[in-house]
Amino acid sequence: MESNLKFDKHVFVCTNQRVNSERPSCGEEHGMELVKAFKKEIKDRGLNVDMRAQKAGCLDLCEFGPNVVVYPEGVFYGHVQLADVLEIVEEHLINGRPVERLRLKFQR
Fold it and tell me: What is the DSSP letter of 23?
């Protein structure tokens, strides 16, 4: 069956910045640095035809930030550091295994 998706995996990194707020801000932490690191790792591995990383607005999980979400699976990661990018790309994007130690799990 043919897919309408342009990318097999899409990584959204929260880069939201709040001014004068009591809630934390992913952008203030290092959101844009994470975007750059994901883009570089994806490009360096030649995956940029099938995968994309980009900045996103608020994912409304501020207390767990910096946050990243990978689609189409809808896997949310919290407290992501620059040192975690390689592991997420290797384990999740390439091998299809979410990184459980960073994964945010939600009750419905």
Answer: S
